[in-house]
Amino acid sequence: xxxxxxxxxxxxxxxxxxxxxxxxxxxxxxxxxxxxxxxxxxxxxxxxxxxxxxxxxxxxxxxxxxxxxxxxxxxxxxxxxxxxxxxxxxxxxxxxxxxxxxxxxxxxxxxxxxxxxxxxxxxxxxxxxxxxxxxxxxxxxxxxxxxxxxxxxxxxxxxxxxxxxxxxxxxxxxxxxxxxxxxxxxxxxxxxxxxxxxxxxxxxxxxxxxxxxxxxxxxxxxxxxxxxxxxxxxxxxxxxxxxxxxxxxxxxxxxxxxxxxxxxxxxxxxxxxxxxxxxxxxxxxxxxxxxxxxxxxxxxxxxxxxxxxxxxxxxxxxxxxxxxxxxxxxxxxxxxx
Amino acid sequence: xxxxxxxxxxxxxxxxxxxxxxxxxxxxxxxxxxxxxxxxxxxxxxxxxxxxxxxxxxxxxxxxxxxxxxxxxxxxxxxxxxxxxxxxxxxxxxxxxxxxxxxxxxxxxxxxxxxxxxxxxxxxxxxxxxxxxxxxxxxxxxxxxxxxxxxxxxxxxxxxxxxxxxxxxxxxxxxxxxxxxxxxxxxxxxxxxxxxxxxxxxxxxxxxxxxxxxxxxxxxxxxxxxxxxxxxxxxxxxxxxxxxxxxxxxxxxxxxxxxxxxxxxxxxxxxxxxxxxxxxxxxxxxxxxxxxxxxxxxxxxxxxxxxxxxxxxxxxxxxxxxxxxxxxxxxxxxxxxxxxxxxxx
Amino acid sequence: xxxxxxxxxxxxxxxxxxxxxxxxxxxxxxxxxxxxxxxxxxxxxxxxxxxxxxxxxxxxxxxxxxxxxxxxxxxxxxxxxxxxxxxxxxxxxxxxxxxxxxxxxxxxxxxxxxxxxxxxxxxxxxxxxxxxxxxxxxxxxxxxxxxxxxxxxxxxxxxxxxxxxxxxxxxxxxxxxxxxxxxxxxxxxxxxxxxxxxxxxxxxxxxxxxxxxxxxxxxxxxxxxxxxxxxxxxxxxxxxxxxxxxxxxxxxxxxxxxxxxxxxxxxxxxxxxxxxxxxxxxxxxxxxxxxxxxxxxxxxxxxxxxxxxxxxxxxxxxxxxxxxxxx
Lengths: 337, 345, 327
What we know:
The complex is a heterotrimer. Chain A is mostly helical.
């Protein structure tokens, strides 16, 4: 009976948090519709989704990693390295675009595999492993291009992926993004694989005793991260039209911000894909809405930090309040009996 | 035992969360048509100039902005000044695309990534927005005009000439650059090398190090270069924070035989020029650059500055030369002991 | 006979010391090897001027890395130190520009750092928010706020009393180095012998056990962040006085340098383990890489890749040891 009460109050707090975030998003949309020029237009809404695709992909794949209680700081550098290698394969090795695309995804998997190897075989904390690979991948990208080399003049058919629009003005990368969203959502929320990630996050030892192959699951999630980072790299290169070694700088922190804003606990165990998606949208709408309202970019940074703190602090306060209420009701039950 | 109830409430959460997303998509259905086409039609209203530096938080662009603000006030134009604050190279593209959505009359960009930005600028031009570049260029077919403070050739040659003058025609020097990926600095290096090979074969370049556009790091790199290469008698610092950094390194090393030249703001370097460590600093009047860029932007938006023009009158700067699609501010200016005190930027 | 007993005692004692501090000694060994290589290939590295420059660059990193080591030992993390550093430096410059006397301005800068640390600590210890997220948010907020305020402009035209505290180059350098050494020794002593120092290890090893033992983990956590903030403010002061003006972009990348140095120096991210001497070795090792590349005439691109490799190697050594211990 106690667990049921506690359980329902936990769901209460949960439901309250993601609704809070949805409310923040609605508030943003309302405010920027008033202050932003051309904010509430179809074109802009598509642009918001289009410009947040790469970070959205990274945030989506960061969610299961954070669910397992880990973290992946190397996604941005992986994006840069994949971009550079894609360019090199296409221009210097002369591979046709589809083959280069496939090879890039494989390279992403390999990079994720390196992280997975160090984390599972050597039992190293993911924070440190990915901090090291964050430097390593970026350094490799810079060394390969001697910092200067820039791959451009990709064929129009490939660039369409990042710059083209389908019928109705839908940006070409949106179907890809939507597919990944649905795929990752199904993976995390409807498969046993997804449940095992959550279990890992709550307690790795407990998960092991429950028969979950811990090392295999961790390896799978980091390799997935590598593949999705490679995909994000391909979309990035198509959108910007160039592949340079500094691609994706700072993206890892933006992805983590979106995931945490979306309600995932950095310690693991709690988090949802729809929450992450909301987080990505809140941040993207904030950035673009401020620019359309003729505000400087620094304000976006300041408000992002402030928003993150405000949302988290209010979540913590709400949890404390509901815990206090639960304790008070338990105490009152004890008094009555 | 997870009861059915828990599953159902999860469904409720999911529904609540998908709502705003659906709302967004719904908003797309009942949208107003893009206003920019209409607002462009009436010529009597205010021209909006969207101006972007390479990055915010760089003192060089503060002085450009002062000139830009002055010109905007003079012409009654609305100036939007924004730029990337983080090192993400795609941020310039994002800003340009957002400005396209907003609908501005003309976009003026100091380009960080030549090929990358051209993608977004071409899109802007397709939508009818005028595009000019200033300080560093995009691909020529992506913009209407380039406001050039000096050609990269002019800058490279001037730097090498000043270096040669300080070295007395022969010896070794080292270059401190901002980053190895910055396109315009790589171009200047090309012309520095060209000038050196043509006119000063007795001078050798001993080292090239990046300082990430940070003064403190430039100081450390300069010290290491001086200690590792005792033959180096001149440091050429081609990004503005590096010049005072290198000069301070020379001062603290106590070596009187080493000099520093570079591209930098007069205010940052006055004390070192006075002390004789830095014989000369090359730049251009950055305020005038910003001023000219806004004047040209407004003129292009109004259709007054068209391709094929050979002269352009820019407010208090008078008549300036237009070479093909380059509006030239003039030659690089050499600040030295004689004249540096006159300037305040 | 007695000689044998003494020597065997020394041998056992030093072997135990070595195995317990294996990580720290391995970093010191790596540093020694690097220095040896430089001595052979580029003896110019050991000029007084160059060594002084490396030490001066290492001073702020060392102080901040010590603070971060404390944070990591107590099982938290702080990635906002770079922004704190920049804010304190600019504040110092502006106060001196406004004709505040140097000691007072310096104190103000240190207190500003303490306040930043307290803000972090209050949210992390008071509300129980995860430290990586809080410090991520404060890092972004302070950095963007500073950028908005200064727009990248240097703080110039500072009075003579600013650079080197007005003591001139030789005097100033001595003062900076002496202060750092004294503070470092104080911290080492404190961590080992003062109970507050031991509490940090306790909270990092097992928070619940520490609580049951009567330690107040939230208070310790708060204190650790305040100490880090104070050290950052002091580091900003000691770094700023080396120059004649203040670049508001100073401190960029400082948090990564400090965390890398701490981790390479043997501080375990899982908390509860770590040694400030190891941090010192880590700081010196990583500080020598960039100038080593200049002296060995290697291309500068390799700096990042090398740092990443060193970090991974150091951490792999950690993991390998723990795997071995398990079997």
